[in-house]
């Protein structure tokens, strides 16, 4: 079986655990994923399973992409490869109840919300300049960025204003609070990266721990 699934973040809510604690959860819509390709050590040099999710019109894909998806019999929108050996077959559907159950530890990957071009105070938590004592029209600047003649340049990775967010991030060791197989939904404790309806990837935790809820 594949080691992960593709899903969509629906939002957050809260549920009661068996011990009576109120637990904040993220709702993930994990509809059945289609096996688009199975990679083997003999042919590809490593073992992995490529899954597809969503639907896409064929005219919006390149001919190569259409041909690749035709082998699985479905024009999927999103592709994701999950490493590891598996006994799945081409075109097989993977359901959420086949992989996860309440109490499992998972890793969730998503794309953070894009914030656009931001200054150093919002992007890097700079404190800014004093509000008085001679400061004039320089309240939210980053300060000096360079040196004198030597080395005479700005060092790489200098924290400055720029584009913020829109990056892929993975949260490790989240707990599955509940799996609702009839609705293809996973309830995950805590928050995950991304906006509502954003695509996310769920896999079994690389460094799993025991569940903290009864």
Strand content: 35-45%
The beta-strand count equals 12
Describe the main β-sheet briefly.
6 strands, antiparallel, barrel
Give the distance, in angstroms, between the N- and C-terminal Cα atoms.
27 Å
- Arithmetic mean pLDDT: 91
Topology order in helix (H) and strand (E) letters: EEEHEHEEHEEHEEEE
Q: Which secondary-structure class do the elements indicate?
A: mainly beta
- Rg: 23 Å
- Percent helix among the residues? under 10%
- Segments where pLDDT lies below 50 for 5+ residues? none
* H/I helix tally: 4
Principal-axis shape equals extended
> Strand arrangement, largest sheet?
1-2-11-10-7-12
List keywords for this structure.
single chain; 12 strands; six-stranded antiparallel barrel; 4 helices; 10% helix; 214 residues
Could you write a compact summary of the structure shown?
The chain is mainly β. The chain has four helices and twelve strands, in the order βββαβαββαββαββββ. It is extended, with a radius of gyration of 23 Å.
């Amino acid at each position: 079986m594949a080691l992960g699934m593709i899903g969509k973040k629906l939002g957050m809510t809260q549920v009661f655990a068996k011990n009576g604690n109120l637990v904040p959860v993220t709702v993930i819509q994990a509809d059945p994923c289609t096996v688009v390709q199975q990679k083997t050590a003999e042919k590809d040099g490593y073992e992995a399973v490529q899954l597809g999710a969503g639907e896409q019109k064929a005219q919006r894909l390149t001919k190569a992409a259409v041909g690749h998806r035709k082998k699985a019999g479905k024009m999927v929108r999103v592709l994701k490869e999950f490493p590891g050996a598996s006994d799945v077959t081409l075109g097989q559907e993977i359901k959420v109840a086949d992989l996860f159950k309440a109490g499992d530890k998972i890793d969730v990957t998503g794309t953070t919300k894009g914030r656009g071009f931001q200054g150093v105070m919002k992007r890097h938590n700079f404190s800014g300049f004093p509000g008085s004592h001679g400061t004039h029209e320089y309240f939210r600047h980053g300060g000096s960025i360079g040196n004198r003649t030597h080395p005479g340049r700005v060092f790489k990775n200098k924290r400055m204003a720029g584009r913020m967010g829109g990056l892929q991030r993975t949260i490790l060791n989240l707990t599955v609070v509940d799996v609702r197989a009839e609705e293809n939904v996973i309830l995950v404790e805590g928050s995950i990266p991304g906006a509502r309806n954003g695509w996310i990837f769920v896999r079994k935790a690389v460094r799993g721990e025991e569940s903290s809820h009864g």
